């Protein structure tokens, strides 16, 4: 691990010095203006965070350290006999800011394999929950139980110098990422497979091992997990899971506490839980229509019904994106390659033809196009992973790569406690009447 840590430290020192200079020279330059609507409506479009690992363009989608998803598919190392990128490679890219070699990726895989042992009390904590508990609740409880291992918290209590925060965050992050597949697979086997657990295979890569421990040893399912874990990993810093992890980490809560907080946000239906909602919605549509192969007319009528009953169409829309999510497209390409005739996957493609014009016609939805969650479930169902309440756990395992790489950078760059200003509506009214200067506060 020292090799990758030393490389990181060298890069972080350069970045820190650059930022210091930037702030010295341009620190008072204005980056934008904030309207009252933005203050009341979810702070959309306010630039107020630095996240080094990825950047989202409304038209083009996500770029990880400058690389689009199609570029990653070309440039990141793959498993032997595989063609999908290894998520360990994306983690390296997000952390170091440069593309890894095959050797670098093998090094990260080896680090993760060596640290993957999960202590028994974590399984005991999960087992203490009723079997009916939602898998995301079990997952966060598992992560919280693992927090006993935090070297950040131990070293802080021993008086760690703030120059070393990044080092402790680095250690915690690698251990946490290494152990998440085991926790996720344990939850899956406990809840859906009668607690018949499967031992890790120390020869497999991080995502391949997750597939194996869940009980899916099909080569193309492993490939799907590699792709899935890569494309769900990061979506710049303002989304709920990334922002929460960053915010909680800014209080110097250790990476376990910060990541668990972020994953509670991912478990919301407007964010990561949308992946389960999509399949639930399609299954309900199939049942109501009495067919597993609905026509576009039938789908259109069902979409209208969903909207009339005051619900959102899950998997469609986005707070920042204004085009089809390239993460949707990457999954569509996987579907075309591995399962072009699958009925459910074809239904997802028919929904893609049907929903955008309907949402567009409402006139209020800023983005009628599908996001990442519109596609993922159908690919999983194809391989027999039909237990849709589990899907957000897979998203969470992947999201650890981005939010925790960012958390290491937060500590390396010495970012302070996050504490934006809030106002009351009374103070807003006084400001409008010219009796208050709250905005200058
Ligand atoms: N179906 C129905 N209505 C939708 C909609 C959808 N898919 N997407 C947006 N709208 C509605 C909003 O609810 C809002 O309605 P009101 O004005 O009545 O409150 C209006 O359109 C305007 O919303 P917006 O500015 O276009 O979108 P927001 O930035 O407020 O919200 C999002 C973004 C993702 C929460 C929203 O599009 C949504 O609820 N989508 C469905 C859930 C989903 O797929 N979430 C996953 C996002 C990706 C992820 O994080 O994993």
TrEMBL record:
Entries under SUPFAM superfamilies matching the protein: Citrate synthase
Pfam families: Citrate_synt (PF00285)
UniProt EC number: 2.3.3.16
Domain of life of the native organism: Bacteria
Annotated keywords: Acyltransferase, Transferase
Top class in the EC scheme: transferase
PROSITE patterns: CITRATE_SYNTHASE
Any single biological process term in GO: tricarboxylic acid cycle
Pathway: Carbohydrate metabolism; tricarboxylic acid cycle; isocitrate from oxaloacetate: step 1/2
Keyword Ion transport: no
GO molecular function: citrate synthase activity
Alphabetized PANTHER family for the sequence: CITRATE SYNTHASE, CITRATE SYNTHASE, MITOCHONDRIAL
Family to which this protein belongs: Belongs to the citrate synthase family.
Name of this protein: citrate synthase (unknown stereospecificity)
Organism listed in the record: Limnovirga soli
């Amino acid at each position: 691990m020292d090799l990758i840590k030393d490389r990181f430290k060298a890069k972080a020192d350069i970045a820190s010095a650059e930022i210091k200079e930037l702030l010295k020279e341009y620190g008072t330059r204005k980056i934008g203006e904030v309207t009252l609507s933005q203050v009341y409506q979810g702070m959309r479009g306010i630039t107020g965070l630095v996240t080094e690992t990825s950047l989202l363009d409304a038209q083009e989608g996500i770029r990880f350290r400058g690389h689009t998803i199609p570029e990653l598919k070309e440039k990141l190392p793959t498993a032997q006999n595989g063609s999908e990128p290894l998520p360990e490679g994306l983690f390296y890219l997000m952390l170091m800011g440069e593309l890894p070699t095959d050797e670098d990726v093998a090094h990260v895989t080896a680090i993760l394999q060596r640290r993957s042992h999960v202590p028994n009390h974590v399984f005991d904590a999960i087992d203490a929950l009723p079997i009916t508990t939602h898998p995301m609740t079990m997952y966060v409880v598992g992560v919280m139980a693992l927090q006993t291992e935090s070297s950040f918290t131990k070293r802080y209590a021993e008086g760690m110098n703030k120059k070393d925060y990044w080092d402790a965050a680095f250690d915690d992050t690698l251990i946490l990422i290494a152990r998440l597949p085991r926790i996720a697979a344990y939850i899956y086997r406990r809840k859906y497979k009668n607690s018949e657990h499967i031992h890790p295979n120390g020869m497999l890569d991080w995502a391949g091992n997750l597939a194996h421990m869940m009980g899916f040893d099909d080569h193309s399912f492993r490939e799907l997990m590699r792709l899935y874990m890569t494309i769900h990993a990061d979506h710049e810093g303002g989304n709920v899971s990334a922002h929460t992890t960053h915010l909680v980490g800014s209080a110097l809560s250790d990476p376990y506490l910060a990541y668990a907080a972020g994953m509670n946000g991912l478990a919301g239906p407007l964010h990561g839980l949308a992946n389960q909602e999509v399949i639930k919605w399609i299954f309900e549509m199939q049942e109501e229509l009495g067919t597993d192969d609905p026509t576009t007319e039938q789908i259109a009528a069902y979409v209208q019904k969903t909207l009339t009953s005051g619900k959102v169409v899950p998997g469609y829309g986005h707070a920042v994106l204004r085009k089809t999510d390239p993460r949707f497209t990457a999954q569509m390409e996987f579907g075309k390659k591995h399962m072009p005739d699958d009925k459910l996957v074809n239904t997802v493609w028919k929904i893609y033809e049907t929903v955008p014009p309907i949402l567009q016609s409402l006139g209020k939805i800023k983005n009628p196009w599908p996001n990442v969650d519109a596609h993922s479930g159908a690919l999983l169902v194809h391989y027999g992973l039909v237990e849709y309440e589990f899907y957000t756990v897979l998203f969470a395992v992947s999201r650890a790569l981005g939010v925790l790489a960012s958390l290491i950078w937060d500590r390396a760059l010495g970012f302070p406690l996050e504490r934006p200003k809030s106002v009351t509506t009374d103070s807003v009214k006084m400001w409008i009447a010219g009796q208050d200067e709250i905005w200058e506060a």
